[in-house]
Amino acid sequence: MITSLKRVKQYEDLGLGLFLHWGLYSQLGVGEWSEFIHGRNKAEYEQLIHTFTATKFDAKSLVRAAKNMGAKYIVLTTKHHEGFFLYDTKGLSDFDVMHSPANRDLIQEFVVACHEESIQPFFYMATYDWHSPLYTKNFKKYLSYLKESVELLCRNYGQIGGFWFDGNWNKKDANWHLDELYQTIRTYQPEAIIVNNTGLKNRGKISNPEIDVVTYERNTPSAINHGLSGEKYVAGEISLTMNQHWGYAKNDLSFKSPREIIENIAHARQVGANILINVGLTGEGSIPSINHNYMNLIGQWTKMAAPALYKPKPTKNLKTDNRYRDFAVVDKNNIYLFIFDLKIVGNKNVVLGGEGNNLRSFTGINKKIKQITWLDNSKTLNFMQDVSEKLLTIDASGFMYGTDWVVRIARITF
């Protein structure tokens, strides 16, 4: 039997998060890996600290925008691979925000705003570091430097939702002394979730017993590795960029369609994974206008889908017709059917394809159904049920003219 910790279950109920990438690289507007990929001179690149002003960083507005999107937690880069800290390192490093024109602890502002809006603050911390010479010249001392930087975050910002580490994949054979690092977190933040991004080649791998969540970066798995029998239950998380970069890239116009993003959110919940929707802040710290519009649009769908989106869990008991992508999730009282690929109802002059019967079948329901209603407009659906055979067929009516929710959700009540 797998042991289930309360903090991991509570994390799964968060469902949807906002991922924020922000650092010196944001001023260049060409992605978060620009220093490395573009082969920039390190000394010249790090002069960006002298123009980092954060004049448009408004933590309260940002957190409200995340909340409006439906996010229950936010992961913010406290330090990316460039090595620049967005918080006061108390003398640990002079490559921090207090040595920039901003001269304010941005992580402190972020945490306060999160707590005011009942949003869980998570800290991204890059373990792979291009700034510190210790990373390549004295790795043992670098690990002490890393642990001290994490301890500062543990001790100075009140209750933290979790830590999101990234970069161990760069030295995959090194001894990262993870037990010591994670024990630091458990000492000061015993209920904090610990995530360590496994990278693109090791999605879903559990690297240490203290890991609470395994990652599936830009990938929707068919199943989540929750651990083996006798071990701790581990949650799963998927990350999704709106375009092709994590950091702000002003000339990256290749944005995903809202349909693709909404369908990815739905698929994450189908397999029981949380999903992080990423935004790269501008150099001054604001949400780019197109990302803000996307967040508003996602928020429309999450408000409609909310009863089915957070606490309900996948079920192996209900099977759907393989011709469709439909699936079901359950809570204590209801079953929610996620229905894909519906059309809009037109008329004889404007035929949009949603007319007539749209029958979808499910097996595995052995209780008599009282009613099935759409979440978006509360209208009831016609259905046929054979309880003895555990068969259910619904007439999944098309969208009313003037609407298209991409993925429509029906609630079954008994």
Automatic annotation (TrEMBL):
Pfam families: Alpha_L_fucos. Its EC number is 3.2.1.51. The keyword Kinase does not apply. Keywords: Glycosidase, Hydrolase, Signal. Gene3D superfamilies: Glycosidases (3.20.20.80). InterPro entries: FUC_metazoa-typ, GH, Glyco_hydro_29, Glyco_hydro_29_N. It comes from the Bacteria. SUPFAM superfamilies: (Trans)glycosidases. Residues 9-304 form the Glycoside hydrolase family 29 N-terminal domain. Belongs to the glycosyl hydrolase 29 family. Alpha-L-fucosidase is responsible for hydrolyzing the alpha-1,6-linked fucose joined to the reducing-end N-acetylglucosamine of the carbohydrate moieties of glycoproteins. This is alpha-L-fucosidase. It comes from Loigolactobacillus jiayinensis.
